[in-house]
Structures are given as structure tokens and as C-alpha cells.
Amino acid sequence: LSHLSFPCRYFRWWYKKTRIEKKSAFIDLLCAVPLQQIYGCPLGGIGGGTITRGWRGEFCRWQLNPGIYHYETVIADQFTVCLRCKGQTIYQQVLSVERPSTLQGWNWGYCGHYAFYHALYPRAWMVYELPGQNVVLTCRQVSPVIPHDYKDSSLPVGVFIWEVENGRDEDVDVSIMFSLQNGMGTKEDRSGGHWNEPFAFEKEGERVAGVLLHHCTRVNPFTLAISAREKAGTGVTHFTAFNPAGVGREVWQDLLQDGRLDSPAGKSSPTEKGEVTAAAVCASCRVPARGHRTLELALAWDMPQVHFGSKEKLHLRRYTRFFGSGGDAAPALSHHALLHYEEWERKIEMWQKPVLENRQLPSWYKSALFNELYFMTDGGTVWVELPSGCRAEDLQGPAGAGLSHLLPVLQEYGRFAYLEGQEYRMYNTYDVHFYASFALVMLWPKLQISLQYDIAVTVVNEDVQPRQYLMSGQTAQVKLKNVVPHDIGDPGDEPWQRVNAYLMHDTADWKDLNLKFVLQVYRDYYLTHDCQYLRDMWPVCQVVMESELKFDTDNDGLIENGGFADQTYDAWVVHGASAYCGGLWLAAVCMMCKMAEVLGDAKAHQKYTDILTKGKEAFERMLWNGKYYNYDSSRSDTSSSIMSDQCAGQWFLGACGLDQEAFEV
């Protein structure tokens, strides 16, 4: 295939992968997901899967199978309000602007003019001013995404706190019904064998009740749970099973009759092939005239044991450490969420308040700082436990024996991975994790340390299997020893076991990956003061810098790019010395000096000090044009371009307090 052009090579590879092997492409250039600007704040903690709601309240994106997305709006997944005065139902409305072709026995078409959406991740607010009723509903959506928390932050749950304000001069009985389809809106919903059952879970005098929806697929089966908290003045009722593809009149009339559901006992029959089922839970209370009451509902999902695409290994999610891996945790998860969300919110507010109240920061920045963190959970994220009985040698491979704290760290904090993007299906893509890693190390530093140990193991080992790269058509081995991998694998394969899912370029010759490892190691040490981590990583930093030194072809202390797209900007060709890679190199050399100083390695300190002195002079001489640094030293038409990211190395030094005096690069 090497004689073919890139489009031809890619198409042949894509056809074999998607049409013959029936697998997803790591980057699908031919079937991109259409842009829909509908998404709001996702539900769920870190690594247990996510369910995303749109800003109009719909449940519209599903990532329960690790790294796999389903973009399906499931129309049965709704909140419905019922208002009753003096024993009569005066208002019953699905809180959705949709007018679907199914469930036509329900009252759809809520006027969007009377609803408002706000999000500040991991919380969101939907306000409904019920037209003509003088009643205002505020649904506050909360997920357990809590900095420096390694238990509750792993839980696959979301809580909906409904604040009801009654502006009328009479009492109102208010019911909120939460309906949910058994599944994610995919063809598996009709595969048969799925069933629902009511549940109640009581602990320490607190009771939660609802319905479990058991989704019995062959691979990665799971249970959904919808529930509400029972307390004085609040009743919880349920409807175990109804057909979401039908008219839906039975559940609608049940609620309409008395603001409650019939609560039949016993489990539903398993669905037949082609059938789909749904359930509903309802929380009800009386709100006094001019008064206020709160109803608390939750959604939990329990997919404790997961396979990636290869189905070779079974992985247990992080939350199973606390709630078990038997597939029966949904009631306990629901109870825990409804009893602990107030504590979560206090911690979230303590974290966010100093930023939100800082008048020196613009509003757009505050919004971005928190709302873009959604990718921590909704980046196809997985957080899994090490298998019981796992030994250090099982993790280290032939060459990783020097990583003394690898096993203890991974045993205590598990393994963490997230995708480059929802359509770029590679876990822990390292050239861009370099940028995103600040969120991890500042908020969940142990996950960053765990990720770095995984990368370090991969660095010192190799994968000699040959394969062809799509851009060049050349064949090379998957992973060379003593170089940083591009990624730790594809969710459609077996991450951690088979790395470098990226087939576009052979990244062994990329100039930035090794440097970004060194920069992160010192940055992590600077922020965590973890001396053992630094000692473990120091030999790995030394070998990757030795690998990088071969790119300094003229021995002037500065690496050269190779005349192809050999760094994270993988469509941009770079020749010779460059501002971006050269700046990263000098910053990494600078940090090698600092680490050698901290660890008392005088020989290494002298070696890298000499390189830094030469390299700084070469960088200025070859790239500074009197106003700014040139893109590269090729003197081509593009070499004098200003690259916005040219000072990335200096930025990293600044983040570590190393951008002054002797360390000024």
C-alpha cells in the first residue's frame, strides 16, 4: 500500500476496519458525528460512565460502555409535573418542549419561553415558571465531582433536587414523575430479556424507593435505578413497567387520577425480542400557600464489570471498591447519593467560591474553567481497579523493575484514562494530555500520578509488532523502547495492553512526547511534593532525554525537527530548529537541571547545564527575528509565521516557578 496516496490508504484501512471487522475507527474521517449544539451538563462521577442531558432537559448522550458514545435522545426519559388543588388535578405537563410521535397520550409541548437553563459544572439548574399556575419549579442537578475525593467522585449517579415555590393563596399538592426507558435508545433496548422491579432501601432510618431497570445484554450488562427519598410529608410511588413505544395512556391516567402511581408489587416480565420497556417513579408532597417544599430524586447506573472492545480482560470500575461488583449496587448507590448530595454541594461550593468571587477574573473565564471540566467525566473516561492478586512484575513488563511505587499507587488509586476526544478514540493521548493535565494534577493529583506511572511503564518497554502508518505508508514497529507512547490504546481494543492506537504517523520520531513527560514529572513534583514519585521517574526521564538527544544532529544543544509533521500539530510540517519543539526542549533540559539538583545527581546536573547553555544561545540565534520567534529555521514562506503556542515550554516553567533568573529560558 505504500505507493498509494494517503486518502486511498486511509479509505482501504477504514473499509476493512468498519465494514469487514465491524469495529469503529480510532479517527473516522468519513462518518463524523453531526454537530448538534444541544448538550448540557452530564450526569455522573469519574470513570463510571456518563449520561448527558441537553439544555432543554432531554437525556441525549450516553457513555456507559467505556469510551463508546450513543447520541440518542430517548423521548420516554422525562420529568412530568402534576398539580392538584382541593382533590382535583388542575395541571399535568411533561416538562419538555418536544412533540413526539410516541407517548401521544401525554401532554407535551411545554412552552420554552417559561423555562431557563444554567450550568456550572458539575451542577445545572432548570427553572420552570408553570404558565398560569403561579408555581415555580427549580430542578438542581448535582453530580459527585469533588476535588481530592477518590470515593464519591467515582460514583455513577446524579441527583435532581426539585425546589417547589407555591405563589398561590391555597395549598397545592405537587408530584414530580421521573420516567425512564430501560436502555440507551439503541437497538439493544429491543434485544429482549430486559426487566424492571420496584425496590426500597433503608439504612440508618433513611428510606429511598424506586424502580430498578435491568438491562441484560451479553456484554457489559447494567442496571439503571430511578428513585426518590421518602421523608415526612413526601410520598414515593412507582409504575414498574410500561411501553414507551406506545401511547402511554396507562401511566399518564394513573398520575392524573390522584397525583400518585399505583405502585404494583413484583417484577415485570422480561421483554420479548422487539419489545422495549420503561418505568416511572413519583415523589409527591403538599406545598402550603405561599410556601416552599423540596422533592429529591436520583438516577443511578450500575455497570460494575466492563470489557473493552477486544473482550480479553474483565475490568472492575473504581466504585466497586466501595459498593461491590455483583451488579446489585444500584439501590445502595441511590440511597448514598440522596443522603450525601448536600455534603457534595458544600464541597463543590467551597472549591468554586474563591474563583467565582474573584473580581479580577472575567465571567467567560470562570465559566470555561468549570464548565470545560465536564470532559473529566464525559471524555469516555474509565477509572478501574487493579485485578486482585496483581503483582508488580505483571505491571512492569520486562524493563520496569525500577518503578518501586508503581504497584502501591495503582493498587490504592486504580488506573485512569480518558479519550483525546469523543471522536478521537485514543486513551490518554499524551501530547494533548500535556495541556489538560493541569486539571488532573490540581484537582485529583493521585490520578495524574497513577497515569504517569502507566506511561512510565510503557516508556521502558517496547512492542515490536510491525504495522503500516497511514500518512507515510511506511512500516515500523508499534512502540520503541525508551520513548513516550502517543496513547495507551483504543477502547475498541485493549487499552494498557496494546498502546499507540494512533496510526496516522509513527510517533517514535515525534519531537514533543518525550519532552512533555519530563515537564509533567517535575510539574507534578512541584505541586504534590511527592519525593518518591520523583525518585521513581528520574531514571525514566533520563532515558527519554537520551532518546531525544539524537534529534540534536549538529550538537548545538538544540533539537531539530525532521521536515514532516513530527509533533502534536500533526498536519504542520516543521524543518530544523523550531520555536515550539525547541522551546519545549529547553524547558525540559532546564527541568532536568532542577531535578538533578533536588536529587543530588551532580553529574547529570553538569551535563544538562552545559546543554542548556548551548541550546539557549542557538535558540536565540536561529529563531529570534527581532520581534518574535520564527515558526522554524527553514527560511521557507511559512517559517516567519507567529505560532501562538511557541512559548509552551516557558509557560510550563512559569507554572513551576522556574521562569526567573538562572531558569529563564
CATH architecture of the largest domain: Distorted Sandwich
| Strand content bin | 15-25%
User: Biggest sheet, in brief?
Assistant: 8 strands, antiparallel
- How far the N terminus sits from the C terminus, by CA atoms, comes to 44 Å
CATH topology of the largest domain: Beta-galactosidase, Chain A, domain 5
Low-confidence stretches: none
In DSSP terms, counting alpha (H) and pi (I) runs of 4 or more, how many helices? 15
Instruction: Trace the largest sheet across and list its strands.
Output: 6-7-8-9-16-13-12-11
Q: Give Rg in angstroms.
A: 28 Å
Shape: elongated
**Approximate helicity band:** 25-40%
CATH top level label of the largest domain:
Mainly Beta
Give the overall pLDDT as a whole number.
95
Instruction: Report the count of strand segments.
Output: 24
Structural class: alpha+beta
Task: Count structural domains.
Answer: 3
Q: Could you please describe the fold and organization of this structure?
A:
The protein is an alpha+beta fold and 665 residues long. It folds into 3 domains: 1-32 and 386-508, no CATH class; 70-329, Distorted Sandwich (Beta-galactosidase, Chain A, domain 5), CATH 2.70.98; 510-664, Glycosyltransferase (Alpha/alpha barrel), CATH 1.50.10.10. Helices cover 30% and strands 24% of the residues. It has 15 helices and 24 strands. Strand 6 and strand 7 form a beta hairpin. Helix 11 (513-528) runs antiparallel to helix 12 (531-549) and helix 13 runs antiparallel to helix 14. It is elongated and about 90 Å long. The two termini are 44 Å apart. The relative contact order is 0.09.
